[in-house]
Amino acid sequence: xxxxxxxxxxxxxxxxxxxxxxxxxxIEIKDSYHSIFYNWGRINHGVPQGSILGALLFxxxxxxxxxxxxxxxxxxxxxxxxxxSITNTSPxxxxxxxxxxxxxxxESFNGNSLFLNYERNKLFTFND
Length: 128
Prior knowledge:
Blueprint: H1 8-18, E1 22-23, E2 26-28, E3 35-37, E4 41-42, H2 54-68, E5 76-78, E6 81-83, H3 91-111
Antiparallel strand pairs: 1-4, 2-3, 5-6
């Protein structure tokens, strides 16, 4: 937070908010009156899921993505989604570029203790 010049009492408050956080998951069983609570687990990275500040603090993480990646084009960001738009008329060059484009993305995500979920990635191609 100090990198973004968030200082003084606000920084202390956010630090206190993010230290020693524990969270557990509640699973409600469909068509049943039963629920399952998992054990409490410590959150070592990120922010508590479902928290009010979570979305705002996540933007600090994602903002680094556009600053640290030295590639063109840069990803478009919206909330917790990112989009990479590539235009190339040569299928071979396009394939080469898209393959190498994920290297700096992964490095940036890993630097912030985040990861790309490749199962949720989609590739759309448009031909003339």
